[in-house]
């Protein structure tokens, strides 16, 4: 049986106008004895409200809270709260403040035993020298130690902490955190803490419970912190999972902030110029490949095609893009070329979400970068890397990619497997947001990565890493970034969809023209877009095969934005992506793969847009896929292709349940 059970809690407050504000809704949480749980989220998400209901200081509107199977209906000495403001009686000394709680709760004990408890807890928090001082003679950290000692002295079943260290300086806070951990571990205390501090939550917690924005806040995610105890504040950052945990929480908090902004800006569809919707929220990730979106905004292509109110929403990671599309906060987005298929076949939480693409915005532009120490060891080829891995079997090497369905991940895995390296067993491939790649490489947390520009060039310029292979070598002409929209959105706003493709197709053509490159680079470098130096931004075409950036032995990765066969979505390419996702166990291979391809690739929308722009010659197919290892992929028999692969995960097949497409209401 769980020690604490929060069962389907709802909490609402009456408003002056007779309505109700629903602070929390549908909260379910179980806490085991001895666990340390942190509640984190933005102000107003109901963290303290939930803590107060566990303490019995407030009652839920619906649902119940149980402590060891007993419903919590009122405050009690089995639950002690430590507040941020200390709550000490100013006319009493340290000893007297602790004694007040002990004598009231443990009055049944002999006086000598109560005095022993008091003195024990004074020593526990290191305040023997201040035992007879009143609060006004204590520092903030000392006052908080008194509050913790008083709470623990009555031997509560549950310790509840409401931002207990929020008002303290960094040094005092760090020392108290370590003391609290030691006390909780030695006394097997169960604790629930409200905090705004991400690092504090990771340091102290067994689990971090993340709450979504209010109103109607709910538990958005629970993160298990699998770091061994005892933990030391200065050492915990060296745990290999620390920055992954930190990134996960920061991503969640940033995403909630983004959602709040989008909710505030979101309006009903505005129809104008014969379009069903001219007010769009379009997501992008700060990479050189976002150039078509940025140019369409800055050079007026959106407006020219009737899209008068377009907001570009900058996301820090591709996960932000997928969540924005899934949650309906984004109308459209720049996506890795594998994301529409991945979402459609159920890559996100095993729930198929039909997403379509009618435009390939970039091809190529990715590269594989390794830590510069590998260059110093003479690792210049895939075969060199393989022998190095064979010679260091006891060392686990980690590579970064930006999303399981990104071409970065699929190309990296294909490249490794072609060299006899199993990416699921011989190395680790972990997901890291693009902007963190260089920092993670420099810190030694990863050995290399596959990513789009400007992050490969930047690693070389800053002498942190070098490019060992570009996608020009692995698959020259592969789809890099695509335009993605939900299928129901495309059905609800068909004219808007065509207008969006037209505006971006014109922007792609603008980005390709060399006379515009300096202007485009300057626009991309701005704070609202890439926020990086011009020296890191390259737009050159794929005919240039020389890179003078030392120590790179290869050319930098060039983008293709526009041209014959560049922008039309390809069913063959999406089928290859589907096989690779199945190859590495990301999703089962769909038995109804022909239907999936028809649903994902909106060639008809692209053809209409190209024809209306007078660019009908761009609509022809690219033909078979030729890869660097001599393999030619066609759409003839994907099952036989998967069976022929020597290195792969166990491959499963399943029917993807795609509902009949129905346009959502505008």
CATH fold topology of the largest domain: D-Maltodextrin-Binding Protein, domain 2
Name of the level-1 CATH class of the largest domain: Alpha Beta
Helix count, DSSP H or I runs of 4 or more residues: 24
Average of the residue pLDDT scores = 89
The quaternary organization reads as: single chain
The H-level CATH homologous superfamily of the largest domain, spelled out, is Periplasmic binding protein-like II
Q: Estimate the strand proportion.
A: 15-25%
Main sheet overview: 6 strands, mixed
- Distance N to C terminus: 48 Å
The rounded Rg comes to 29 Å
Pfam families: ABC_tran, NMT1_2
Family: Belongs to the ABC transporter superfamily. Nitrate/nitrite/cyanate uptake transporter (NitT) (TC 3.A.1.16) family.
InterPro entries: AAA+_ATPase (IPR003593), ABC_SmlMolc_Importer (IPR050093), ABC_transporter-like_ATP-bd (IPR003439), ABC_transporter-like_CS (IPR017871), NO3_transporter_ATP-bd-like (IPR005890), NrtA/CpmA_ABC-bd_dom (IPR044527), P-loop_NTPase (IPR027417)
Keywords: ATP-binding, Cell inner membrane, Cell membrane, Ion transport, Membrane, Nucleotide-binding, Translocase, Transport
